[in-house]
From TrEMBL:
Source organism (scientific name): Rhodopila globiformis
Protein name: Cytochrome C
One GO MF term attached to the UniProt entry: iron ion binding
Lineage: Bacteria, Pseudomonadati, Pseudomonadota, Alphaproteobacteria, Acetobacterales
Top-level taxon in the UniProt lineage: Bacteria
Keywords: Signal
InterPro entries: Cyt_c/b562, Cyt_c_II
Signal peptide: 1-20
Length: 156
């Protein structure tokens, strides 16, 4: 059975996808020339930095997959992607280089992904207007966690 998305949600999520696709790869790139970058610097060895940034890119790709699945009304797939790729999982050893505040913010994002997945899994098929509202709100919580961390920290 084909699932149809609520038109307002499709417009909002489509706008979010378009906005995300047009943003610079790093927040520092968005600053005017000569502006100072006030974010907290996290220093890492070059090999660890590259792996860490790759890991963050995988988070962005997973979030994009979740948004795409939600926009198409496929909440079950969105939940599965969030569980498989964004929920709390095995670490990769980055913690020793990260300040406590960063770790706390990261854990909050991973927990928000789990809460999103639970809400998406509980949605009816096809999703009701209330399901759209709850799932969209939970999706916004994930994105807000990402934005807050990226606005606070930068890796060197």
């Amino acid at each position: 059975m084909a699932m149809s998305a609520h038109p307002a949600v499709v417009l909002a999520l489509g706008s979010l996808l378009a906005f995300a696709g047009l943003q610079p790869a790093r927040a520092a790139d968005a600053q005017p020339a000569g502006a100072t970058n006030e974010r907290t610097v996290i220093k890492m060895p070059p090999d660890m930095r590259a792996e860490f940034l790759d890991h963050m890119s995988h988070h962005m790709a997973a979030l994009n997959d979740v948004i795409t699945a939600v926009a198409s009304g496929n909440f079950q797939h969105a939940a599965q992607v969030a569980r498989d790729k964004l929920e709390v999982g095995a670490g990769k050893g980055f913690g020793r280089y990260l300040p406590i505040k960063f770790r706390e913010m990261g854990l909050a994002m991973h927990r928000a992904a789990g809460e999103f997945a639970t809400a998406a899994e509980a949605a009816s098929v096809p999703p009701s207007a209330e399901n759209w509202k709850v799932v969209s709100g939970k999706l916004g919580e994930i994105s807000a966690r990402c934005q807050a961390c990226h606005a606070t920290f930068r890796v060197e």
